Amino acid sequence: MGINFYIQSDSEIPASAQLYDQIWFAIASRQYPPGYRLPSTRQLAMQTGLHRNTISKVYRQLEEAGVVDAQPGSGIYVREQSSLESARPQSPLWEEFPKARDVVESSLDELLRQGCSLNQARELFLAELDWRLRCSARVIVTAPSEDIGAGELMMRELETALNIPVQLVPLEELDTVLAQARSGTVVTSRYFINEAEAIAAPKSVRVIAIDIYDYSKELALLKELPAGTCLGLVSLSSGILRAAEVISHSLRGDAIVLMKAQPKDTRRLDALVRSAQTIVAFDHISLPVVRHAINAARNDLIRPPQIVVCDNYIGEKSVNLLKRELGLD
Predict the structure, then answer these.
(1) Mean pLDDT comparison of 57-71, 105-119, 180-194, 284-298, highest-scoring range
(2) I want to staple 67 with a disulfide (CB 3.0 to 4.6 A). Which of 31, 62, 88, 258 is the partner?
(3) Whole-model pTM above 0.70?
(4) How many domains does the chain have?
(5) pLDDT tens digits for 297-313?
(6) What dihedral do alpha carbons 51, 55, 61, 63 form, nearest 10°?
(7) Which of 89, 106, 127 is the last residue of a domain?
């Protein structure tokens, strides 16, 4: 026969339904190809321990579903593929996601090849879905305390993009927070992924790393600035300011003068707006603070500096990935 059917006697699923599902998938996975003669009721009774009447009932159900044909005096045969396809369960989702059927079938087939039963496969899929739904119920953004501004940027942008509450937790406190409630998803920048995973992995909490905005527009601007320009850099994140300073020096050397400030450092920010010809605000949180500082110093400015504001901190692809992972897309 080639295939061994197994009936779980302690299962809540009726024995006939177990056998029906196993034969169906044996046909769907081409272990029983079109035209194949199914085992006789006597053979299946000896293998499964079921009564022959129960097996005959299963065969009748398969015939009514259009999966097999009963040929009197000959046996039960798998119908041709065109008949089988028309008999399969249909769903509008198959049309919405045309490649989904192949993904589902191939995943199930692989589990069956590994010796997994259909009931076990269902439990595995449901367990994964349940875990992801629980993870989606709580989203935690983490970053080191020394650059908590980066975490605040991620939190604010994700709350806007995902339209769900997002909790900000310093990396140093993440272990304590996860110990109190282990379900959830931790989101952080790739710069901090190793530290976050070391804390979350032992607690079976998943961590998703996000990519930041590529700053291609700002880099192009930097390359075109006239020599001697004073460039001001303002960001909530100290890490962004450090990276921007290093990149600016690597691209322009001493050809431009750099000044940097965080929105909360009012004295440094005031000096910056009085000296810079161009100011890059790396986030929308810093932008109104920069404008306020310029307005406050307007009487002392010969010409107000040009302000360039970055579109966002998190890359668009990362936002879309999070939406899919959290079931929000």
Answers:
(1) 284-298
(2) 62
(3) no
(4) 4
(5) 999 998 999 999 988 88
(6) -150
(7) 89
